[in-house]
Specification:
Layout lengths: L2 H23 L6 E5 L6 H16 L5 E5 L6 H8 L7 E6 H10 L7 H4 E16 L8 H10 L5 E4 L5 H13 L4 E4 L3 H10 L4 E5 H9 L4 E5 L25 E9 L4 H16 L1 H9 L3 E2 L4 H22 L5
Parallel strand pairs: 1-2, 1-3, 5-6, 5-7
Antiparallel strand pairs: 3-9, 4-7, 4-8, 4-9, 4-10
């Protein structure tokens, strides 16, 4: 390699570094859009709006817009993010389904998170909670199982979408207990809970954080939580293991990502601002009250975690015999 070529490479490297720093110094200069793959009111939406409310503290002057784009268990918003300009002005707060389960559920998924995204952080995690309409005859997990055995194939399970953690939690319950039921997918957890409250469906596994207000308000009743130990939010609600179904530990999670190819300095600045928003005392207190654990990890930790989760849920889908769409 000639001295002239080496000089040019060095010059371009210096130029790229200076350009990245210059872009970061002017960032943000226009509104930042947070895509949410589900309807308003669900866990991903709650996390997105909590981040949006505090993002300006790490990015002074930032105007943040939350845009709900539900459908296909988050695949519609997932594809939108993958095709967006990698400039830091479009990010997404998505769920375990959007980031990992969809990879197993869809044959021709129009995006691949590990390939198409700059992963920012896992925001929060929380267990699912098995909830029912107050008028449903079962008041415990044991009574639910007995009811399903006596009324084969008649119990309806609402979910936030095909391939969501609540859908797969229901499938896992049916497998472990030798029962059958009817899967009723919705475009988000809030829509599922609305029909659950109205009595159009019987039971559902939903994110504890999103369902807690309805349970405390008496609009829904809780039968069990999918965590390894009882939730401090509902200390009287047993875990699945305590209620008689062992090996049933499931956590849902929400995470933040941007299109692949963010300028390095903007990537660092955006990560710091999102983590700062998640760890702010007000946001953390709000999440604690709803049963969410703040994670706020590094992009590297998120990447390794996503690889593990994708492999895990592919195995669950294969075992369940669910055919990818």
């Amino acid at each position: 390699m000639t001295i002239r070529v080496i000089s040019r490479i060095c010059a371009w490297a210096v130029f790229a570094c200076i350009s990245s720093i210059a872009l970061a110094q002017g960032y943000p200069s226009k509104p930042i859009k947070i895509l949410v793959p589900f309807t308003a009111g669900g866990s991903s939406d709650m996390v997105a709006r909590a981040i949006a409310a505090k993002l300006g503290e790490g990015l002074p002057g930032a105007i943040v817009i939350v845009e709900n784009k539900p459908g296909a268990n988050g695949a519609i918003a997932g594809e939108m993010l993958a095709k967006s300009t990698a400039d830091g002005y479009t990010i997404m707060v998505g769920s375990i389904g959007t980031f990992s389960i969809n990879v197993a559920m869809f044959k021709n998924l129009p995006y691949q998170p590990l390939r198409d995204y700059d992963l920012i952080t896992v925001a929060v995690r929380n267990p699912n909670i098995l909830i029912a309409n107050p008028k449903f005859p079962a008041n415990t997990l044991g009574e639910l199982i007995a009811y399903m055995k006596a009324n084969a194939g008649k119990t309806s399970f609402a979910s936030s979408g095909s391939g969501s953690s609540d859908h797969l939690s229901a499938e896992l319950l049916l497998q472990r207990t030798g029962t059958s039921g009817i899967q009723v997918p919705y475009k988000g957890g809030s829509a599922a809970m609305t029909d659950l409250i109205g009595g159009a469906v019987d039971v559902s596994f939903q994110n504890l954080g999103a369902a807690s207000g309805h349970v405390k308000g008496g609009r829904l009743k809780a039968l069990a939580v999918t965590s390894g130990k009882r939730s401090p939010v509902f200390p009287d609600v047993p875990t699945m293991a305590e209620a008689g179904v062992s090996g049933f530990e499931v956590y849902s999670w929400q995470a933040v990502a941007a299109p692949k190819g963010l300028p390095k300095e903007i990537y660092k600045k955006l990560h710091a601002a999102v983590v700062g928003a998640l760890r702010s005392p007000e946001t953390k207190a709000r999440f604690d009250a709803q049963g969410f654990d703040v994670v706020a990890n590094t992009p590297e930790e998120f990447t390794e975690f996503l690889r593990e989760e994708t492999a895990r849920w592919k195995q669950v889908v294969d075992t369940a015999g669910i055919k990818p769409d």
